[in-house]
């Protein structure tokens, strides 16, 4: 079993898609180990996306991620990282495959409904950023 980190982003929460996204997560065979609804501060978003700090989209991304509540999750499944990325679909919903979360719930490359870790080391950092101690047991 492998664990990965996921976010249902502010755009999907605001549009009322969170329940449908969660249902799709469970239907795909993931175990939701823990989840929490949060509202990131600008500073928390900047810390989380620190790796992108030099990119031109950093300010817009951190503004967006701190613009409203989102849901952070720890998901578990065999090959969870790849499985979650496949379920999410391409970053740009216009290029995402039919049946993916971003195709169904994303509006644009900036408002694409979900986030997921891309590698084991990223998952470890991202899970540790939002969940502490017994939350992940």
Polypeptide structure, described:
- The chain is α+β, with helices and mostly antiparallel strands and about 140 residues long.
- The chain has a single domain (about 1-130), classed as Alpha-Beta Plaits.
- About 40% of the residues lie in helices and about 20% in strands.
- The protein has helices spanning about 10-15, 20-25, 40-50, 60-65, 80-90, 100-105, 120-130; strands at about 1-10, 30-40, 70-75, 115.
- Helix 3 crosses helix 4 (about 60-65).
- The longest helix has 11 residues, at about 120-130.
- The two termini are about 15 Å apart.
- The model has no long low-confidence stretch (mean pLDDT about 95).
CATH class category label = Alpha Beta
What do the pLDDT scores average to?
Answer: 95
CATH topology: Alpha-Beta Plaits
The spatial strand order of the largest sheet comes to 2-3-1-4
Strand count, sense and barrel status of the largest sheet are: 4 strands, antiparallel
Number of strand elements: 4
Head-to-tail CA distance between termini: 14 Å
Summarize the helix and strand pattern as letters: EHHEHHEHHEH
Low-confidence stretches: none
How many domains comprise the coordinates?
A: 1
Cα radius of gyration in angstroms: 14 Å
């Amino acid at each position: 079993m492998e664990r990965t980190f996921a976010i249902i982003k502010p755009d999907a929460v605001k549009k009322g898609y969170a329940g449908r996204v969660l249902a799709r997560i469970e239907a795909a065979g993931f175990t939701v180990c823990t989840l929490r609804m949060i509202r990131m501060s600008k500073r928390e978003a900047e810390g989380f996306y620190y790796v992108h700090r030099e990119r031109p989209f950093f300010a817009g991304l951190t503004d967006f991620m701190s613009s409203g509540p989102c849901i952070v999750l720890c998901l578990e499944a065999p090959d969870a990282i790849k499985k979650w990325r496949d379920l999410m679909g391409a970053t740009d919903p216009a290029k995402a495959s039919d049946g993916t979360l971003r195709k169904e719930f994303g509006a644009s490359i900036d408002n694409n409904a979900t986030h997921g870790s891309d590698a084991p080391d990223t998952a470890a950092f991202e899970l540790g950023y939002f969940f502490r101690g017994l939350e992940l047991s």
